[in-house]
Structure formats: structure tokens, C-alpha cells
Amino acid sequence: MARAAKKKQVNSGKNKSVSAKKKSIQTKNKLPENKDKLNKGENQGFKISLPHPEKVQAWGMNSHSLSSVLRPKTSAEIVEIFQYANSHSLKIGLRGGGCSYGDASINNDGIILDLSDYNKILEFDASSGKLKAESGVTIKQLWEYGIERGFWPPVVSGTMYPTLGGALSMNIHGKNNFAVGTIGEHVSEFTFLTANGKILKCTPKLNSDLYYSAISGLGMLGCFLEVIIKMKPIHAGKMKVWPVVTRNFQEMFNYFEQEYKQSDYLVGWVDAFGSGKGLGRGLIHKSVHLQEGEDKDFPENCKLENQNLPTRFLGIIPKSWMWLFMKPFSFPLGMKFVNFGKYLSGFLSNNKPYMQGHAEYAFLLDYVPNWKYIYKPGYMIQYQVFLPKETAKAAMEEIFLHCQKRKIVSWLAVFKKHRPDPFLLTHSLDGFSMAMDFPVKNSTRSKVWALTYELDEIVLRNKGKFYFAKDATMRPGIAKRFFPEKNLKQFYSLKKKYDPKSILQTDLYKRVFLS
Ligand SMILES: Cc1cc2nc3c(=O)[nH]c(=O)nc-3n(C[C@H](O)[C@H](O)[C@H](O)COP(=O)(O)OP(=O)(O)OC[C@H]3O[C@@H](n4cnc5c(N)ncnc54)[C@H](O)[C@@H]3O)c2cc1C
């Protein structure tokens, strides 16, 4: 496989023209000069006028804001917007791909800075795997750029549409969290525009307070500009996958504990309707990377046309229509039936390993575009809990039973194993998580919210944590019950230091940290 030339300037995955490519490089080279000018207020290149407010939605469709949206393309423009906000008392909410399920990237009473057009891959060093990119680059751009060169992003979420900036602000995890940690652990350096307008280079040693707090910092201290992430070398276009049926929680926990040292990725799907001896029954997918020489079709099968998710189901039905076929089942009894069917069908391929492409394995949730529309005319929330390994099984059993008692059962539940990491507001810990999707209608909203308040108590009693990328319901006062006091104190003090005029805010921040 032809690896990329060392330190080559490259374009984003969006097929930009050669002139756009040149422009991006010039902008990058000019940055320090621009920065000085901007600090003196001399940059006249980018005029700020606030456009008409538009509806900006949470991914789960459970909340929205009406906000003016600015879409900068360069770091100089972002700097200028921050300056403007500081001098005009404007409140900015940063937004990447908008893939957070709740209100983490919407901003009532303020504007949105949508960073998805700030999206160029700038440099790649094939000898180290280090890739430098603007923070609006998506995971999709990263893997599409990397795979034909024999590299894969070290950590990916279940969807490929988050940006690097959004992923770092939430410090996302993948199905390999137990083995390689969160995305922040693979970022050796970034430039960061603090809310009060300073551009700082951050590494674990340089401006380390910012390094460890901007990663996981919910976009509240400033904006990631250029990020260096270390891509993982791969030697095959496919991975070996084992599907394994587990009849209850005990079997699922046992399998994870026995297998994690021999696995690169592990993910469990759980039928939340299972009860009695079948409480926590489900299906695990374990996968391992192939070693050099094991994949006979390499590097041919790393070409994008062999990796991209198919756009048609059975080669006929456009995938974008698939949610319409799922829609008739989108009521509790229908979903009970679908979950049970999925569980039973697992026995057909139980323990029979097969080969699967990287994108197909990693981005299962992108398989059916717009699947969230099955929740319409309502919407959905995801409630993900992280529990220490000592209490996880009992707590998850209690959570599932409690949901069943309240007759609000998750339609999709996903189980993962985790390890702790050093970032200030991280969600991860030495244990397990369960992500649960719940349907909501306006008529059931208060009941679902009340259920999550009850589940909060189970999680907190079991020394668990929550994840802001998924949260829509957390009440003020809960954060201080699961974060160490010193972490929260440090977060508030860094916020004061780097954002003295408090220009950065989102609805999530106001709901959880300001109320
Ligand atoms: C289908 C689906 C599956 C998912 N699977 C997983 C998973 O497996 N693991 C996981 O960990 N998460 C998962 N997520 C959650 C998702 O990875 C996170 O919400 C991630 O933060 C989204 O990135 P984004 O670019 O869309 O950010 P947004 O949602 O737009 O913003 C997230 C946060 O980042 C801030 N922000 C955005 N850009 C910047 C920037 N340049 N600088 C500073 N702050 C910024 C925002 O203010 C906000 O606080 C999933 C989401 C979906 C919809």
C-alpha cells in the first residue's frame, strides 16, 4: 500500500478544489501573523453580521434553539468572532457535527458557532501516523483519508459524523475503550483559542491544565483549532468478528471479563425487555485486527469503494427508506417483538466468526440513515450510565427492572467496557456502561424525565457517572454528586480564568452547571 508522503499538505475529504487547498495552507501559515493583528483588533477581512436565527436541533430531536448560526472557515474568522463576542457581550455555543443526543450544542439566548466548515486535513506523517487537522474535520474524513494509506482512527464513535472538536470536548470513547482509552489519549498536541482570545499550544506538558481540561471540557473554555491525532496502522481491510449470544447479564459480564485481553473491540447489544432468567440477555460482537499478511485481499479491500457502507438494502431498497419499514414496529409491543427477534436470530450465527470491513463494524448505527425518525412525531433521549466494575452488574439489573416496573423500557440498549483516563470532566471509569434509548412524546415527557431521576439515584448510590454527550435530563446539583469536588472546583476556576466574560455557553452548561 502506498503510504502518504511524509509531512504532505493534504486536502479535506470534501473534494475541495486545488485553489481551496492552497488557500487553506496559506491561512495556516499566516495564523501567527493574523493572531497578532487580531489581538490588536486590526483584522478587517471577515465582517460579522448575525444572520436570521434558524432552528438548531439536538441530535435526539428532544430540544432545539433558535439561534443565529455563524460558519467560519478559518481560524482567523473564529478569533474575530470571539473578539466580537467579548466586546459585545455575545454568548456563543460551539457546535461540531451536532451529534450530541441532548442540548450540548444548542444555545438558546445566544448564537451558534458551527465549526463544520473549518474542516481541512493539513498534514500527515506516515512514519509516525500523526495527522494534523482543523477541528471541524469529521471522523468520516479521518477514516476515509486514513484507510487507503493503511491507517484507522484510534477511537471512533458508533457514528462517523462527529467532528474532532466535538469528540474532544466530550472526550468520546469507542468499542475499544477498555484497551486504548478515550480519544483524548491519542491527541498529542492541539492549538486552542481560549474564550478570552489567546491562542495556546497545548500538550500533556505545555499548558497542561488546559490540555487536560479542554479535552472533556464541553466547549466551555475555548475552541480547538488545529489538532494532532495519532492514527493506528492497520494491515487488513477487514477484521475478524465473533457474534456470541449471552442469555443474561451474568453471561455478558463473564464473556467481557474473559475475553477483553484477547479483543480489540467488544460491544454488547442487550434486549431490555428480557426478564426473569433472561434479564440482560443479548448479543456480543467481539473483533480483532488481522496481523500483517493475514488478509489476502489487502490492500485492495482498503479502497474506499470496498469500505463504504452500502447505500441499498439487498442491493435494491435505498437505505434512506429503511426507517420507513422500521416505523410500523415503533411502539412498545412492536419493539419488544423486534428485540426478541434479534436475540433469537443471534443463535443462527452464534460463535461462528466472520470477516467484516472496518467501517461496517465500527459504524453500525449509520447503517440505516435517519433511523431516529422512527421516534417521530415524538423524539428520543439516550441515557448512558457508567458503573464501577464492582457494582455494575447489580446496578444494571436494578435499572432494567425499574424501567420494566415503570413500563418505560429502552428500545435499544448497548453495553461496553471502560477504563479510567486523566481528563478533568471525563465520564469514563474502571467498569462498564449501558446506553439506553428511550422514546419520548410530549405526553410522556414528564414520566420519562421522572424515570431518569429515579435511575440517577440508583447510579449515584452505586458510585456511577453520567456522560454529557448523551445527557438531556440531568438536574442541577447532580454533577457535584459524581465528580470529585476538586475537579469541579478546578473546572469553575479555569472557566473564570479563560472565559472571564463567560462568552461560551450551551443549554447543557446552563442547565447543569449554572442553575
Ligand atoms: C448515533 C450516535 C452514536 C454515538 N456513539 C458514540 C460512541 O460510541 N461513543 C461516544 O463517546 N459518543 C458517541 N456518540 C456521541 C458523540 O460522539 C458525541 O456527542 C460527540 O461529542 C459529537 O461530536 P460533534 O462534533 O457532533 O459535537 P457536537 O455535538 O456538535 O458538540 C459537542 C460538544 O463539543 C463542543 N464543541 C464542538 N466543536 C468544538 C470545538 N471545535 N472546540 C471546542 N468545543 C467544541 C460543543 O460546544 C459541545 O459541548 C454518538 C452519537 C450518535 C448520534
Keyphrases for this structure?
single chain; 515 residues; alpha+beta; Uridine Diphospho-n-acetylenolpyruvylglucosamine Reductase, domain 3; Vanillyl-alcohol Oxidase, Chain A, domain 3; 2 domains; six-stranded antiparallel sheet; 16 helices; 22% strand; globular; disordered N terminus; binds flavin-adenine dinucleotide
Summarize the structure in words.
By secondary structure, the chain is an alpha+beta fold. Helix content is 31%, strand content 22%. It has 2 domains: 8-233 and 497-514, 2-Layer Sandwich (Uridine Diphospho-n-acetylenolpyruvylglucosamine Reductase, domain 3); 238-466, Vanillyl-alcohol Oxidase, Chain A, domain 3, CATH 3.40.462. The chain contains 16 helices and 23 strands. β17 (312-313) and β18 form a beta hairpin. α1 (18-39) runs parallel beside α2 (75-88) and α12 packs antiparallel against α13 (445-461). The chain binds flavin-adenine dinucleotide. The site of flavin-adenine dinucleotide (FAD) has 33 residues, from β5, α4 and β12. Flavin-adenine dinucleotide is lined by residues 59, 93-100, 104-105, 115, 135, 157-159, 162-163, 165-167, 169-170, 172-174, 218-219, 223-224, 365, 469, 506.
Number of separate helices:
16
Shape: globular
Q: Which percent range fits the helix content?
A: 25-40%
Query: Distance between the terminal alpha carbons, to the nearest Å?
Result: 54 Å
The top level CATH class name of the largest domain: Alpha Beta
Instruction: Identify every distinct bound molecule in the structure, by name, code or SMILES.
Output: flavin-adenine dinucleotide
Counting structural domains, the number is 2
Mean pLDDT across every amino acid position:
91
CATH architecture of the largest domain: 2-Layer Sandwich
